[in-house]
Amino acid sequence: MSSEESRKQVDDENEVELEDLAGIGSATAERLRRAGIKTVKDLAAFPARELEEISELSEGKAEEASRRARESVFPKVLSAKEYLEKRGSMPRLTTGCGNLDRLLCGGLEPGITELIGAYGTGKTQLCLQLCITVQLTKNRGGLGGAAFFIDTEDTFKPERLAEIAKAMGIDGGMALENVYSFRAINSDHQFEGVRIAQEYIKTKGVRLLVVDSLTAHFRNEYPGRESLVGRQQRLNSFIHQLQRTATLYDAIIVVTNQILDVPEVIPGVKPMRPAGGNVVAHGSTFRLWLERSKGMTRVSVIDSPKHPRWSTYVSLSQNGVEDAEVEEK
């Protein structure tokens, strides 16, 4: 599927203009657009307090605008059966690796998938591979869409994308055209990257958003225990921005996370833990732990609302992330 065809599949939020909402006139709509809120879906994502701050609307007008937008975008109540049917139509993305797809009961789905691991475990390689698999046709497990890569640690390498694409039988030049990179130089810039990604979701057919890595800038800019509260609040705001993106656009979001050494070793507990604490743990929908083992990478589901806690093995090669010959039972 071409990039142009994939764009046509994106829900056209612009069919409903801001002015079409009761209580929002042309002047209010213009203030909202100046604040970067261009569609009803954009408006529905903002709580009234935040909307008031960024749009110069009065408290009453902000509350009314936010409520009317939510009512037009989201159904008030769904039965469990209706929600199951809705989930059945949600996109599912292959990882390009059979072992991982089985671990994830068929592949990645909308929400935030967190890849946790030390350096060299294959987190970035898997992210790059997903930037290729998202372009595959649906009968091959892809979504026929594009990818948006927010790079916080200079890990985005188009050369690797081309190699992985070639291994999957995809023209490297065409594949690179459908992956958009954004180099975030600090946490403020990282927030901006998500806002730009939302525009690309609406206009460029982006179905996958990658943040590699999630916590690096926040850890660097808020060092020490005295900065912990501020850092966690800021990180929480960023994760909520990702959650809104996933909810509004059925986006598949993949973030990588660093690990920290635990000073005291507790029996039965890993001597390392993910960065970001409970804020990241609660914010991520699915959490995968990657670690080197037996010359391969062991991938384990450590938290998920639906997947069993199970592990599998993958290998890293020039072709990307592949099935390992030995799989843990």
Characterise the protein shown here.
- With about 325 residues, this protein is an alpha/beta fold.
- It has 2 domains: about 70 residues, DNA polymerase, domain 1, CATH 1.10.150; about 240 residues, P-loop containing nucleotide triphosphate hydrolases (Rossmann fold).
- The protein is built from 14 helices and 11 strands.
- The strands form 2 sheets. The chain has a 9-stranded mixed β-sheet with strand order 3-2-4-5-1-8-9-10-11, sandwiched between helices.
- A hairpin with a 2-residue loop joins strand 8 and strand 9.
- Helix 11 packs parallel to helix 13 and helix 13 packs parallel to helix 14.
- It is globular.
- The two termini are about 35 Å apart.
- The N terminus is likely disordered.
SSE topology:
Elements: H1 3-9, H2 26-34, H3 40-44, H4 48-55, H5 59-73, H6 80-88, H7 98-103, E1 111-117, H8 123-133, E2 146-151, H9 158-167, H10 172-177, E3 179-183, H11 187-203, E4 206-212, H12 216-221, H13 228-249, E5 252-257, E6 259-261, E7 272-274, H14 277-283, E8 286-293, E9 296-303, E10 311-317, E11 320-323
Parallel strand pairs: 1-5, 1-8, 2-3, 2-4, 4-5
Antiparallel strand pairs: 6-7, 8-9, 9-10, 10-11
Helix pairs in contact: 4-5, 8-9, 11-13, 13-14
